[in-house]
Write a structure and sequence with these properties.
The protein is an alpha/beta fold. It has 14 helices and 20 strands. The strands form five sheets. A seven-stranded mixed β-sheet has the order 14-15-16-13-12-17-18, sandwiched between helices. A six-stranded mixed β-sheet has the order 9-8-7-10-11-19, sandwiched between helices. A three-stranded antiparallel β-sheet has the order 5-6-20, with no helix packed on it. Helix 3 (about 95-110) packs antiparallel against helix 6 and helix 4 packs parallel to helix 5 (about 170-185). It is globular. The model has no long low-confidence stretch (mean pLDDT about 95).
Length: about 500
């Protein structure tokens, strides 16, 4: 049998067993029978980190076989037993947090402090669902029939498929997998081929935690090859996907014949709205966070910044000065801005900037690649951006901030809502009545008021319109992986 290929690391990883390159299927680390692999590179310098197994469609289908076989025993475990295993997985993630963060930096490029924050975030879902799995799942209902008892049971769906993105390779997997496992489902998962090492490290820790063979499977390879058997197989009862709206639509169509439950967190086009009564310094600071975290590669990232004309010039000046102060560098040096994921991402920044300038915007700072390397792009601020600029209609997914003025509350509500997306909106004001009105009027699944960070394990994460279906996190996140059974019982 082939041995796993070595991962080339520029920094020390204390536990080398976390550096996996094979798929994890049915409790075994598996190479592709064909011997095919996919190279994984460091976006900061293009160096090759290693090669992961590129599994075939048949091998991907084999993961469903393993998960289906494991399902009855896992679903039949006492919830306390599942909770204990999840708790052990959480403890191991916490214990190996530094190694996990460093692996993430190397394959994804994000600054080290952000990677550490993501590991903490990822672990929080495992801890939360370890506790949530023990909650009672039987609800009594007042009977509408004489001499009958009525109950509603929540039962696990069965095998579920999870497809995770490259920008949050740990948190998006645990947010889905911990909820599914807590509910009693078994999992087949596919991480992005650009950042698979984080998922494989989590699988190694899940194995150590005592997750039984077949319950949690991680299948690496080309997404079009790995995922298609999952969408076509009726045994896969739900599919949870985080990624672009375009791919979400494709998966929606592919899953139609088997009538799967779909949980999708798709694209975002978040507005930031700053009123003249806002705390301007705080609004600038929070908008910087909303725009430039993860180097702008975040579905929650601020993509359109609307500022009340009365404070527009002051906001633009303060925001530009702060953007210019952001450091750019390699992730291990913990800068504010790291490299973008690939060449396609950088080209999108260039195209959006060029288009906006052609349509009358002014470049306040940035606007070009950085000398550190081809995937580094300077923090960029565009002011006076016109409504017809592409950046005002398309998700940028990078460190380019477009700012435009508005004159009335009604105008900015209409402009903010004029998008097919509806994930998150950011609002800055100190007027409680205005905050209430805007929170109601904005057509987004989440609204952040005078702050940026709103996510966490106890809250239902998700959007409206074409930003997705269903919710992740909170008890709702676990309920997505369950079915309601109605029992009407007569003892006679």
């Amino acid at each position: 049998m082939m041995s796993e290929t070595a991962i080339s690391m520029r920094v020390d990883i204390a536990d080398k067993r976390l550096l996996r390159t094979f798929s994890y299927i049915d409790g075994k680390w598996c190479a592709a029978e064909s011997g095919e692999t996919i190279a994984v590179s460091d976006p900061a310098n293009g160096s090759r980190l290693g090669d992961i197994a590129s599994m075939s469609a048949a091998e991907s289908a084999g993961a469903i076989d393993a998960a289906q076989l494991a399902f009855p025993a896992w679903a039949g475990l006492l919830p306390q037993k599942r909770a204990a295993i999840l708790r052990c997985w959480f403890d191991l993630i916490q214990h190996h947090a530094e190694d996990l963060a460093r692996i993430m930096v190397l394959e994804q490029g994000k600054p080290l402090s952000e990677a550490r924050g993501e590991i903490e975030y990822a672990a929080s879902f495992v801890e939360y669902y370890a506790e949530e799995s023990k909650r009672p799942n039987i609800e009594g209902v007042t009977s509408h029939l004489p001499d009958a008892e009525v109950e509603l049971w929540r039962e696990p769906l069965g095998v579920v498929a999870l497809i995770t993105p490259w920008n949050f390779p740990c948190a998006m997997l645990t947010r889905k997998a911990a909820a599914a496992l807590a509910a009693g489902c078994t999992v087949v998962s596919h991480p992005s081929s650009e950042t698979p090492l984080s998922a494989l490290a989590l699988a190694e820790l899940a194995e150590r935690a005592g997750v039984p063979a077949g319950v949690f499977n991680v299948v690496t390879g080309h997404a079009s090859v790995i995922v298609k058997p999952w969408t076509k197989d009726a045994r896969v009862r739900a599919l949870s996907f985080t990624g672009s709206t375009e791919i979400g639509r494709l998966l929606y169509r592919q899953s139609a014949d088997t009538v799967k439950r779909l949980i999708m967190e798709l694209g975002g086009h978040a507005p930031v709205i700053v009123f003249k009564d806002a705390d301007l310094d705080r609004a600038v600071e929070e908008t910087i966070k909303a725009k430039f975290a993860t180097s702008g590669q975040d579905c929650l990232g601020a993509n359109r910044i609307f500022v009340d004309r009365a404070v527009y010039d002051a906001f633009c000046a303060k925001f530009t000065k702060m953007a210019q102060s952001l450091s750019i560098g390699f992730g291990m040096d913990d800068p504010d801005i790291g490299p973008l994921m690939n060449e396609k991402a950088v080209r999108k920044q260039e195209e959006h900037v060029a288009d906006a300038l052609t349509k009358g915007a002014r470049l306040a700072c940035g606007g070009k690649r950085h000398a550190l390397g081809p995937l580094f792009y300077e923090p960029t601020v565009l002011v006076d951006v016109s409504a017809d600029a592409a950046i005002m209609h398309e998700e940028t997914f990078g460190p380019v901030a477009p700012i435009t003025p508005f004159d009335s509350e009604e105008e900015v509500i209409e402009r903010a809502n004029a998008t097919e997306y509806g994930l998150v909106a950011y609002l800055h004001s100190q007027d409680p009545r205005r905050i209430f009105r805007l929170s109601r009027a904005l057509q987004f699944g989440m609204v952040a008021v005078n702050r940026t960070k709103v996510t966490g394990a106890p809250i239902p994460f998700g959007g409206t319109k074409q930003s997705g279906l269903g919710r992740e996190g909170a008890r709702l996140g676990m309920e997505e992986f369950t079915e309601i059974k109605y029992v009407c019982r007569d003892w006679a």
